[in-house]
Amino acid sequence: MGFFWSVVFPLLNLIIYMFVFSFVLKLKWTMNQPDQEVALFMLAGIVVWQAFSESVSRMTNTLVENQNLIQKVVFPSEVLPVYLTISSVINMSIGIAIALAGVAFFAWINPPAPVVLTPEQAAVAATEPVRVLGFGFSLVCVPLLIALQAVFMLGFGYFMAALNLLLRDVYHLIGVALTVWMFMTPIFYPAGEVQKAGLGWVLKVNPMYWLIDSYRRVLIYGEWPMIPVVAAFALVALIVFLLGSTFFLRQKPRFPDLL
């Protein structure tokens, strides 16, 4: 199927997670949120996380997979993580387009029916902010978010790629770490549940939550992202890139021997 896996894979993930978290566990972000909105909310999170997870896991082992190039010819090894980052961003852009198409369909072509609530649920829903599906001029922020995400992924990937040559178990550990990180990020459940559990600090130190929440505001509701959140992510992305690229370049002369 080639190129079409970029479309099929996020949709397959969406179906699986929707079944588990929405239809089985009945999780909603707000009391009056229809299932279609839950699906779009999850899709936006899945698309962004998948790009990050895929790029980092592939970059971690990219030097080992391309050792013939690095050992036998004068090859700029720093290009490999850049290529994988661009590839993941392109695939993510396709997923973003699918999410926007879904928002357009449910917001204007086939609006979801109102959710029927019990009197107790209606009382709770009355205290929740009302958010309307749609997108607008805030879409101009999407290229900025993509650029910041690419910088973050590339810096993280540079660090992990070099570290994997020093400690080969890193490639196996990163898969576990990414799984834990994914479930610590409110992709399939409301962030409010984390705060209710007294773990709000997890959200405050999780840059991927800041990024995914910013994407959701722009793509699903047409809202502008929160400037302090975007600024904080930009700072973290820059620091990660500087540290990761510096570590990578310092270890580069040792790559042929380590391979």
List keywords for this structure.
13 helices; elongated; single chain; mainly alpha; 259 residues
Architecture blueprint of SSEs:
Layout: H1 5-24, H2 35-60, H3 62-65, H4 67-72, H5 79-109, H6 119-125, H7 142-166, H8 170-184, H9 191-196, H10 200-204, H11 207-221, H12 227-251, H13 255-258
Order of helices and strands: HHHHHHHHHHHHH
Quaternary: single chain
Which percent range describes the beta-strand content? under 5%
State the major sheet: none
Tally of domains: 1
Class of secondary structure makeup: mainly alpha
Unreliable spans: none
Q: Termini, distance in Å?
A: 34 Å
User: What is the typical, i.e. mean, pLDDT?
Assistant: 83
Principal-axes shape call: elongated
Task: Provide the helix percentage.
Answer: over 70%
Rg is: 20 Å
- Number of DSSP strand runs: 0
Tally the helices: what do you get?
13
In a nutshell, what does this entry contain?
The protein is mainly alpha-helical.
Q: Could you please describe the fold and organization of this structure?
A:
This protein has 259 residues and is an all-alpha fold. It has one domain (2-258). 73% of the residues lie in helices and 0% in strands. It has 13 helices and no strands. It has helices at residues 5-24, 35-60, 62-65, 67-72, 79-109, 119-125, 142-166, 170-184, 191-196, 200-204, 207-221, 227-251, 255-258. Helix 2 (35-60) runs antiparallel to helix 5, helix 2 (35-60) runs antiparallel to helix 8 and helix 7 packs parallel to helix 12. The protein is elongated, with a radius of gyration of 20 Å. The model has no long low-confidence stretch (mean pLDDT 83).
